[in-house]
Design a protein that fits this description.
Elements lengths: L4 H23 L4 E7 L3 H16 L3 E7 L5 H13 L5 E4 L9 H7 L11 H8 L8 H13 L7 E5 L6 H10 L3 E5 L6 H6 L3 E4 L17 E4 L3 E3 L2 E3 L4 H4 L5 E2 L6 H22 L1
Parallel strand pairs: 1-2, 1-3, 4-5, 4-6, 6-7, 7-10
Antiparallel strand pairs: 8-9
Helix pairs in contact: 1-10, 2-10, 6-7, 6-10
This protein binds guanine.
The site of guanine has 8 residues, from strand 3 and helix 6.
Amino acid sequence: MIIDGKKTAAELREELKKKISQLKSTYNAVPGLTVILVGNDVPSKIYVKNKEKFAKEVGMNSEVIRYPVDLQENELLNKIKELNKNDQVSGILVQLPLPKHINKRKVIETIDYGKDVDGFHPMNVGNLSSGYDSSIPCTPLGCSLLLKKAEKNLSGKHAVVIGRSNLNGKPMTQLLLKENCTVTITHSKTKDLKTECLKADIIIAAVGVPKLVKGDWVKKGAIVIDVGINKTDAGIVGDVDFDEVSKVAKAITPVPGGVGPMTIACLLSNTVECFKKAHYK
Ligand code: GUN
């Protein structure tokens, strides 16, 4: 089974469109997403354009604030504080990476955690790891929705997460624990990654190494979610050798067309959730 992220994301956006239209008639307001982009990083520019496009498509208010690469940190922090106070803004996303002279941690911690659609604020990170209600980072949230397409009940499954980033590996682990999985987190210092992977019922690959996970690393019938987006001479490839692994796995996500489209759909979903929480108060 190839898990179709493009289709699943389109279905999720369709649901959100309906929800937003209901919210509009209830509150006479729609969720608003503000994305801040600093500098000229080319992949970031593409991501931000897509975020804006899909936010509009589901009927949200969408605003992108673009700054030059030499923006002063204070100016960015002041803008975030202004957006925190603006009732029209349900969600704030500052696109990463930021230029080196800007302190990423300060930026993330300045965003009102109720508007933190990335789920990066320490309050959301802490709430997620404590099992409380929180914003959930978009990429792992997308992975878990795709995982559910392949297997409804994940209880007792052994999941191996490759990569320990704050963006994906760590929050992914929390989501898998919530589903009662046994989780192994692996990383660059893991001694024998192949042996660890061979124990897995579920593999989440998020390290940014092209085609790292080979066919003989995967147990027959495992589910494999590929978060990697790696530019190579042969085009965009994931962290999983798709041709080899698709022959052994029960289900696998392709690259492109797997996790990628889900990330933006989940961002829109998080924005709707932030709007709802702000209005139910
Ligand atoms: N850059 C790459 N992925 C992400 C993401 O999920 N959120 C933000 N803010 N920046 C990113």
